[in-house]
Every structure is written in C-alpha cells, then in structure tokens.
Design a protein that fits this description.
Layout: E1 8-11, E2 16-20, H1 27-35, E3 44-49, E4 61-66, E5 72-76, E6 86-91, E7 108-109, E8 118-123, E9 126-133, E10 138-141, E11 156-160, E12 171-178, E13 192-196, E14 223-228, E15 243-250, H2 252-258, E16 267-271, E17 287-291, E18 297-305, E19 316-320, H3 325-334
Parallel strand pairs: 2-4
Antiparallel strand pairs: 1-2, 3-6, 4-5, 7-15, 8-9, 8-11, 9-10, 10-13, 11-12, 12-13, 14-15, 14-17, 15-16, 16-19, 17-18, 18-19
Length: 335
C-alpha cells in the first residue's frame, strides 16, 4: 500500500488480500517476501498500528512461514485477529532518497546526487534514452528505445552515477525485456527492463528509485519532476549536464483533449498546458517522479511520447508505472 508501505499478500484459499501481522516477523521473512518480486538486497521493515490505516472492512490478518525451498506460505490467523495490533511495513530496497537538498525543455542543471537513480542508456557509444535504477541489477526504461532492432546486448551499456554525460566505464547489459504487448511504433505498453551483467555499487551518486504502491492515485495538478539529458530545445542537441524540470499531473480528460482518443488507463500525462516545460528527444525512458507519502521519491511514469517539445496544449505522455507493477515484479523474479 502507498500508505506506510504496508505489506499485503494474496491468500489463495480465501481469494483475498491479507495484512501481515507483525507478531514473529523477522529479517528472514522480509528477505523471503522480497525475493518473490526479484529484490535480494537488505530490506527495510517496520510495524504500523492497524489504527493508522483507517477503516478497513473485514480485514484479514496472516503470518508468514518460510519453506525449505525459500518460498513463502501465507497462513491466515484465526478469527481475524492480530494480537499486537501492528502490521508489517516493508520496503525491499532503501530507495528514493537523495544526499543533497533540494536541458529538458525549460529545465535547469542539477547534480546526479539530487536524482541518483537517473541513468543514460547507450548504444555503441551514443546516448539513446534515459532510464532509472530499480535495484543493483535492474533498470527501468521505455520499450521504444529498442525499436530499431538493436538487440545485441553487448552493444548496449548503461551509464550511471554521473552528472555530465559521458560514455566511459558504462555498465554492460545482460538482457533486455520489452513488454510482450508492445509492438514497434505503437504508443501502448511502452515499457522495458534491462538486466545488468553485474551488480552496480550503491553510493551517494547511485540510488534506486522507489516503485509506487499499488494503490497510488495522485490527483490532477500534483507536483512532479522529470530528469534527463535530452534536447533542451525542439530540434536541438543533447544536454551535457543532467537537467530537471518541475511539472504537474494532467488529468486524463484534459489530456484527451490534446490527444483525442489516444490516452489509455496505462498512460499518465504531465507537463504544463501553457507549454515551455516538457521532455524532448533523448529523454525517452527516463523517470517521472513524485514525492511519496513516505517522504521518498516514487517513479510514477516512464517518458514515452508527445507532439513536439514544450508546445502549448501538447503535454508529455508517460507509461503509468502503477499499471505495470505486476509485470515489473514478475520479470525481475524469474529472470
């Protein structure tokens, strides 16, 4: 859940989702749960009073048993009880934090320490797209970054931890996964994952971004940020320094006025209706982030498409990350 990172697990016997009672919870259970969605670093966990969650109709409480093969079993507690009144809050990675206080169109120079999850995805020594660090082995980006059939992974590299765009010492790529429903030059399901050949070292300049809670639902005009090294003017050239721009979430109805009938539930729109603030060529695949309820940066969008760069009434369109959480976690777990 977005609120408090509260953990919910599916109980097949009751066909429902269950809160996990904090009684007898420990690090081995936290690691086993995180492994189910492809995270193998040290998880961060805590407890949250059930009273903090507001009114929940007929809540189901369970505990976790780790089986011999490392899988987990969810055991519903009798009579819907949780003796401690505390449920598990879990983050599978320390994410979304920066170590500094706080040219994309209309943007400004920033340091990588402000947005340490930002990466440059490069093909044969050229910047092609942006991307974001999900954990020490996985990068989230857009599927259309690979539209030209460049499937040889040894020609792709990921540059991370740098403010100034460079092509030296970039990380090697092991596999590329485009969403199976994506087809070249289409606008839907434009999301991809890259698995690196080796773990990257987390530091002040290299941090994962948080994925949002499954129930993340921001209202229109919520403040957002997008970063990248893309063109600073339409038809221009790549920025040498990492750029960021502050924009807002645009409602689906308003966005459909700009792009009639093209905006689906798997997309989100963001920008400035008056123009002047936007993403552009070279920003594709990069992260659209918001400050989450847990005071950490959540990635709610992946830069996808739009008409022009910073034009009035033509805002940017992004893959809606919440709609792809099952796909992201599924790929990371089995690959």
């Amino acid at each position: 859940m977005e609120t408090g990172s509260v953990l919910l697990l599916y109980v097949s016997s009751t066909n429902s989702w269950s809160l996990i009672c904090n009684d007898n919870w420990d690090s081995s259970k936290a690691k086993a749960v995180c492994a189910q969605i492809g995270y193998y670093s040290e998880p961060v966990y805590n407890s949250v009073p059930v009273s903090n969650l507001g009114a929940i109709t007929n809540p189901l409480y369970s505990n976790i048993q780790v089986l011999g093969d490392g899988s987990i079993q969810v055991n519903p507690l009798p009579w819907g009880s949780c003796p401690s009144g505390q449920v598990v809050s879990l983050s599978c990675a320390a994410c979304g934090t920066v170590h500094k206080q706080q040219r994309i169109i209309g943007g400004s120079d920033v340091s990588i320490q402000d947005y340490p999850w930002q990466v440059s995805i490069q093909y044969m020594g050229q910047h092609i797209c942006g991307g974001s660090i999900l954990n020490s082995r996985w990068i989230l980006t857009a599927a259309h970054c690979f539209d030209k059939g460049q499937t040889q992974v040894d020609r792709w590299h990921v540059q991370y931890g740098v403010t100034t765009l460079t092509y030296l010492f970039a990380a090697k790529v092991d596999k590329i996964f485009r969403n199976a429903n994506y087809y070249t030059n289409q606008k839907e399901d434009d999301i991809a994952l890259m698995k690196l050949a080796s773990d990257i070292r987390i530091s002040a300049n290299v941090q994962p971004v948080c994925l949002p809670g499954y129930d993340n639902d921001l209202p229109p005009n919520s403040p957002l940020l997008v970063t990248g090294w893309g063109y600073t003017v339409e038809g221009g050239t790549l920025a040498s320094q990492l750029q960021k721009v502050s924009i807002v979430l645009i409602s689906e109805s308003v966005c459909n006025q700009a792009y009639p009938g093209q905006i689906k539930s798997t997309m989100v729109c963001a920008g400035n209706i008056q123009g002047g603030y936007d993403t552009c060529q070279g920003d594709s695949g990069g992260p659209l982030v918001s400050m989450g309820q847990n005071s950490a940066w959540d990635q709610i969008g992946v830069v996808n498409w739009g008409i022009g760069c910073g034009r009035p009434n033509k805002v940017g369109v992004y893959a809606n990350v919440v709609k792809y959480l099952d796909w992201i976690y599924g790929v990371m777990k089995v690959s």
